[in-house]
């Protein structure tokens, strides 16, 4: 397909998502349970912005709308290769070639945004894209299949394949699939990499879990730190990969921070409720299995005294899988609540004294997706930005994303990056052509 036609198809697809946004949001809400605003709307806007440039999206309810500059339709025809002069007798051309058939396997917690992040750069660079949504939230993805046909993608170029993990495993081990871009949990990500290696050594991008630390120093702006840390844990009921689920607070500000954090946390109950109501900002957790798992983890931690539960951790209301966000203090470093991703509204808060101590605490995790530091001291902020072992660092912010910059994790949080130009590299293979000028 020529560049201009491909660009038109991508832009039309973005228009169709926009026109059908309420319908798509309803399909996601029916399965995920997150209210339309802020989460449902922001993930649809992310999907649109991935295909089309210049889109104002309210990324998070507590930040101003930002201009999204992803624009993978705009990249069509511009992701040029390189050329090198023939100083050694060979003129060199490096081509960025599409991989062929690529698959995107996505989780349930932000289905439409995940599709945009993967499908837009894959299709912009000329690949065939097969989407495997999560079995828990497949409806909006299935509806997108119809819109892909209407947008004018040639038959088969954008496919939606529903199914559970076994369908994902077929894609990960298929000999004709050249790449899998996977977003999900660490154990499944490791499985996908094994299947990829055992089949055709397909390329793999892994966007996995996190246990992101937020570090609050004595000199931090208290109001700002509380706002980001609380929103970073309650958005989508804590079911976001970069949730600020470990908070470290310096001695001098600890008492004030804890009081303000607890109050702000408790206030979230007021905006938690029926996802169909315009008053609600936070819904239930995704399903009964997730609800029972989270409450079991909280109960075990309470019984084994892995930390002091000072607030929440119980089911809320008579109906639906609502969980009152839980705060544990002074947690045992090796406990499940301190170490593992819970993927729900559970936070652990611990004190620290020195910068060195908190760097060690922050990095003592198998995850490395995001870290945040709250301080007014720019030198300290820069020292911590370097010291954190994570793919993304927030200074005076946390649990957020910039759409023009790479997103992904270090350590067991994954391999590779999404967003920005990095996504285009992830769906192409450089090929070097040597032209002999010496005969
Ligand atoms: P999951 O690993 O259970 O499932 C993810 C997807 O993989 C689903 O589509 C599932 O059907 C499929 N799958 C399951 N078994 C498979 C197999 N053997 N081979 C291939 N595919 C298989 O994850 P989940 O519970 O859906 O999502 C929650 C996880 O996703 C959390 O750990 C969260 O942190 C992570 N996540 C990460 C990011 C990120 O960008 N880093 C973003 C969102 C979510």
TrEMBL record:
Organism: Penicillium salamii
Family per record: Belongs to the aldehyde dehydrogenase family.
Molecular function per GO: aldehyde dehydrogenase (NAD+) activity
Catalytic-site annotation from UniProt: 207
Catalytic activity: an aldehyde + NAD(+) + H2O = a carboxylate + NADH + 2 H(+)
Name of the protein described by the UniProt record: aldehyde dehydrogenase (NAD(+))
Enzyme Commission designation: 1.2.1.3
One GO biological process term: carboxylic acid biosynthetic process
Entry-linked Pfam families: Aldedh (PF00171)
InterPro entries registered for this protein in UniProt: Ald_DH/histidinol_DH (IPR016161), Ald_DH_C (IPR016163), Ald_DH_CS_GLU (IPR029510), Ald_DH_N (IPR016162), Aldehyde_DH_dom (IPR015590)
């Amino acid at each position: 397909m020529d560049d201009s036609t491909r660009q038109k198809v991508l832009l039309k697809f973005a228009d169709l998502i926009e026109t059908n946004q309420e319908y798509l949001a309803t399909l996601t809400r029916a399965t995920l349970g997150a209210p339309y605003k802020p989460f449902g709307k922001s993930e649809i806007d992310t999907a649109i912005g991935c295909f089309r440039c210049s889109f104002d999206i309210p990324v998070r309810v507590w930040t101003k709308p930002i201009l999204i500059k992803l624009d993978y339709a705009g990249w069509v025809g511009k992701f040029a290769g390189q050329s090198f002069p023939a100083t050694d007798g060979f003129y060199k051309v490096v081509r960025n070639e599409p991989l062929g058939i690529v698959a995107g396997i996505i989780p349930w917690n932000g289905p439409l945004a995940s599709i945009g992040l993967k499908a837009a750069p894959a299709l912009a660079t000329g690949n065939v894209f097969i989407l495997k949504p999560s079995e828990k939230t497949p409806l909006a993805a299935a509806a997108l299949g119809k819109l892909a046909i209407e947008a004018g993608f040639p038959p088969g170029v954008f496919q939606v394949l529903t199914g559970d993990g076994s369908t994902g495993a077929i894609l990960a081990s298929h000999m004709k699939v050249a790449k899998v871009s996977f977003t999900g949990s660490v154990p499944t990500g490791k499985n996908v990499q094994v299947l990829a290696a055992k089949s055709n050594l397909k390329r793999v991008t892994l966007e996995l879990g996190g246990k992101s630390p937020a570090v609050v120093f004595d000199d931090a702006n208290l109001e700002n730190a509380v706002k980001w840390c609380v929103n970073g844990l309650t958005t989508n009921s804590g079911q976001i990969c970069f949730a600020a689920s470990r908070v470290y607070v310096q001695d001098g500000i600890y008492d004030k921070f804890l009081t303000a954090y607890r109050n702000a946390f408790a206030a979230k109950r007021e905006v938690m409720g029926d996802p169909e109501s315009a008053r609600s900002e936070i819904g239930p957790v995704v399903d009964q299995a997730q609800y029972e798992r989270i409450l079991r983890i909280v109960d075990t931690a309470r019984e084994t005294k892995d930390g002091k539960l000072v607030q929440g951790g119980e089911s809320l209301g008579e109906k639906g899988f609502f969980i009152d966000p839980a705060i544990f203090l002074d947690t045992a470093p090796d406990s499940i609540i301190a170490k593992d991703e819970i993927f729900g509204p559970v936070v652990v808060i611990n004190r620290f004294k020195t910068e060195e101590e908190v760097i060690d605490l922050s990095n003592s995790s198998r995850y490395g997706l995001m870290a945040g530091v709250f301080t007014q001291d720019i030198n300290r902020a820069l020292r911590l930005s370097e010291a954190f072992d994570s793919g993304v660092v927030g200074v005076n912010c946390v649990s957020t994303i910039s759409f023009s910059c790479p997103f992904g994790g270090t350590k067991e949080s994954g391999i590779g990056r999404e967003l920005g130009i990095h996504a285009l590299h992830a769906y192409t293979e450089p090929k070097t052509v040597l032209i002999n000028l010496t005969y």
